[in-house]
User: Fold this.
Amino acid sequence: MEEPGQASSQQQDPKTKRILANHRRLKKILSHIAEGTEYGELPTQLAELGVVLADHFHDEEGDDGLFEVVDERAPQCHATIEKLRQEHRALTDELAELCETARSGSEDDHARTQERAMGFVTRLKDHEERETRLFLDSWCTDLGEMD
Ligand SMILES: [Fe+2]
Assistant:
């Protein structure tokens, strides 16, 4: 017998399954970093975050991704999409620099690096929330045009 939600996940196409699995992984890593890490653990967590985030941004920017869908539904949001796209570059660069700092830092530097990592998580979550809002607003705009 199928568990609730199981049937729908079986009906999802491979791309959707991969995106959802990636989101779950992203959420798990962000929670782990936000809760605090031990010295020596942070570089591994940040490196894994870098891999997951690269996939995540690629999906958002790619064919049928969030940006393309919003751009089609709500062309007036084009400038906002470009700003979010630039934020992807900035977040990627910031994370790469943070990874290097965590990898090369001593145990004495850990608390400061951990604090920076938490700041990064907060900015990334804010970015994601704005994307979600934009997506939902564009959907409402699309539905509104059906009136
Ligand atoms: Fe994004």
